[in-house]
Specification:
Layout lengths: L1 H5 L10 H30 L3 H10 L2 H25 L1 H6 L1
Helix pairs in contact: 2-3, 2-4
Keywords: Membrane, Transmembrane, Transmembrane helix
Pfam family, one: DUF3159
């Protein structure tokens, strides 16, 4: 929703099941990244593993966020192609 609001596409993607699937994959991907980051770093913190925690914070910081943003970009691109193919975006902009 944030991506389509930022790109002025609104909710035109909502009726299309395939577009919703793409954005579901992106949402679950980001949720998995943030969930794994929390679980692993919390476990290392509770285990008093300072060195491993520092390494985990670096490895699970920007590199994983970049991967998550690539998944979001993939979903948006696939959704845009799909919406153009079925004519939903062309109908909205005309």
């Amino acid at each position: 929703m944030l991506w389509n609001t930022a790109t002025s596409k609104g909710n035109v993607w909502r009726p299309d099941k395939r577009s919703r699937f793409y954005f579901d994959v992106a949402t679950w991907g980001l949720a998995a990244i943030f969930g794994a980051r929390f679980v692993i770093q919390r476990w290392l913190y509770d285990s008093d593993e300072a060195g491993s925690l520092g390494l985990a914070k670096i490895a699970m910081g920007y590199p994983l966020l970049a991967l998550g943003l690539l998944v979001v970009a993939w979903a948006a691109r696939c959704s845009n192609k799909r919406l153009h193919a079925v004519g939903l975006l062309a109908a909205r902009h005309s």
